[in-house]
Amino acid sequence: MTSKSMTTSERLPIYGGQALIEGVMMRGSMTCAIAVRSPDGQIVIETRELGALYRSKLTKIPFIRGLFILWDALVLGMQGLTFSANVQVEDPDERIEGASLTLSILTGLTLSIGLFFLLPAGVAYLFESYLDIPNWSTNLIEGLIRLGLLIGYIWGIGFIPDIRRVFGYHGAEHKTINAFEAGSELIPEKVQAYSREHPRCGTAFLLTVVIFSILLFSLIGPLSIWMRLATRILLIPVLAMFAYEYIRLSARFIDVAWAKPFILPNLWLQRLTTREPDLTMLEVAIKAFEEMRSKESR
Prior knowledge:
By secondary structure, the chain is α+β, with helices and mostly antiparallel strands. It has helices at residues 8-11, 64-88, 98-130, 135-157, 161-181, 188-191, 202-218, 225-234, 236-252, 260-273, 279-296, and strands spanning 16-20, 23-27, 31-37, 43-49.
């Protein structure tokens, strides 16, 4: 498969993806495709048409569209992970679906908010209460704790063999999109030469949310512990809106010298969330991308 090279403004809104358990999900403007390597070595593919919500004019409105990215990460991501996990399970009774799927989603979301938003806020409140530290300082401490937890968590899980394979598929996803956007033929041996970093990665989104949380929460004055915790939850959509617009803007200027320092931290963090994929991983990523592209062109 070949394609002419595209400008950044042309390619920006179109393609995204996510690494899965032994697989990759690729999302276009109308369709997402999931390709997973089954235990017997076969590549299992599933395509899903995106709902009318994704083609709504709301997705074109600055800042509002960031909420759709958050929804995309939660819903499509969990659907893709569930499908890939079920492909790996040989016993149908062990598959995740129905109530167990809903419970898994809610549990994961609750733990994530608790670990990365509520815990840092609670620790910072203790600093403010017992060490008599100014409010602006504790907000900075809170942000640094949140950043440290994010980086430490990603670094730590990278030692788990199964997660390292997921990170390999993450690298395959990025290489495939980078190769397509460069106009390269999509075969594993050629795609392997491309970078495993990509400026529009979800990792960049997470890091940007953390950085913006430091700025936003610093504007809020002293609060009781319960109000502090409540604002951290309620302002997550606001952080998502600003983070998405920042990533979108910075990606447009990726080739401009002055903009590169603003993009580098996101690319550095991707060195933790990606690994060099082998050719079999690249084959899966390419299959997902080509399936998505074929559905998009109809």
